Amino acid sequence: MKKHLFPIILLLLGNTINAQQDIFALAGKDSPRIEFSDFRAMNADGTSGQSIFGVSSEAKIISQSRKASVVEDKTSYNHAQSMTLAALAYDSSGDNLVYMPMFSSNIYVLNQKTKEITLVENTVARVTSCDINSHITRMTTGYDRNIYAINNSGTQFLQISKKNNQYVVNDLGIIKDDAANGKNSFTSIESGFGGDMIADAENNFYVFATSGNVFKVSTKELIAKFIGKISGLTENYSVNGAAVNSKGKVVIASAKGASMYELSLENLEAKQLSGESNLHIYDLASKYFVNDRTSSANVFANLDVYPTKVDEHFIYLNVNDKTLKGNIKLNIFDISGKAVLAQKLSIKDGNLNQQIYLKNLVAGSYIVNITDDSGKALLNKKILVTK
């Protein structure tokens, strides 16, 4: 009986893996104003997945500083289910969603499993409801696993880190315009305010303004450089959310009731996803990074494995190369050279997007080796499993 049960268990496990969602959304209602609805998972095609926590959900709020439950004033802007939520990041250290109300300096951490919310009070973020310049509208996880947030005008660049299991907030300084930005100013309402941000594997940040302008922010120099404007969007599309998906592409979303789009930073050409066409999304978050392709010896430019830092037991193999056909073999070796995982995969029409379950690999460094049927090496890449 057991030998029949084993493949059934594998099949069920495979279905669970395929159903995993990569991106989280802070969604709103169909309303002319900002009106929070829920936090939800999003599918790769731009359709809504599971609702995680909503405006009417029962919320247990724990103050980090007081280490006790608190009751918040829901007639104010300073509460965990405020209608003006517009900044979201994913904290992989605890499978938490970190967010801020637009008109508040409060930081909240939602535990997806327990639904308990931690209130992080801070005096570092200077936010007032009447000052649009001060509103925190962009937030993401950096490659160093800290959370980063930027207000509309760039006068506060916040780092939210974890020390001794407590969230600590630091102001990294003022972000200024690159001298070459000209009319595409990072600090102008028309060209630079609102939107969202993502990170790359060098811990640089890319801010996607509501206007569709994209700026690269250097953390060392605190300079925002205009790199271009997104093309291919529908007229008057408002860019309000941005996140990196499992393929390493950027996904953007709008609060105005529209579809999600996918694009590459290389050309900023947006392609509409096939999912829902009336989404109201104020912010997006994920655990992935742009250009997360270090330590790779890659024969084919359109064959890759990511992420290189694995905080869950999954990696992704992406192939988009018409010259590759038939079967390929994926092997994973530990640092001693011992094979710890082997899997055969089939490429159809030069395309493959496969999630690989790493089973019970312990934390440490590994080499992912991919070969064709003849044994020719197609890719060797180092990954780091962190838990």
TrEMBL record:
<feature type="signal peptide">
    <location>
        <begin position="1"/>
        <end position="19"/>
    </location>
</feature>
<feature type="domain" description="Secretion system C-terminal sorting">
    <location>
        <begin position="316"/>
        <end position="383"/>
    </location>
</feature>
<dbReference type="Pfam" id="PF18962">
    <property type="entry name" value="Por_Secre_tail"/>
</dbReference>
<dbReference type="InterPro" id="IPR026444">
    <property type="entry name" value="Secre_tail"/>
</dbReference>
<protein>
    <submittedName>
        <fullName>T9SS type A sorting domain-containing protein</fullName>
    </submittedName>
</protein>
<keyword id="KW-0732">Signal</keyword>
